Here is the input.
Amino acid sequence: MEKQSLGLGGLLGLRAEGQFVLGAGFFNEVHVVAEDVVVKVAKPYGPLQQPLSWLRRNRREHEHSTRYLRVPATYHVRMNRRGDRPVSVLLQARLSGRLLSQAPDEDLYLPPLRMELVQTVRALERCRRQSGWLPDVIGGPPRWGMHDLRRSNNLFVTDDGEIWLIDPGALFLWFSRRNPVGMLYTSLLLWSGRRMLRKRSD
Here is the structure.
């Protein structure tokens, strides 16, 4: 793929090959520009585009998540496309690797991924305990098993064995323990993470 600038003309021109497409639950367009930048365009919110408040909240959740997990460098911008309404766009550094849901089971119990998983689960437990909230560690699209951390489309395993969170933005109802639904869901997520670590402790 040839290098391309981030000009408005070519900004939305190239499709991603899978890294961010599966994990991008809040986005309906995902593209690769200049080989090392991923562009995500927020999906419409009902009949309207995602409001500016969504972009601001997403930026806050990205910043908060960096206290606990690795998150790719991300820029949140508002832009106009010719003949269209304003859209919320995320420009994110591209990673090389695969989603946790795509990693073979045997890889989960080998270093360095095993230690990365232990540290990730501990970080999520600390995040929920300290803030009462979890970032979106599951990701879209909607599917069976969204309570199971093993099926995550938002935790990304790099070629070096590091775990990164690629789309922290969360639906408040589901990921906050300040309501019964969020308390149950975040508890299930953390339980599934601990169960994944116990499956082969040898």
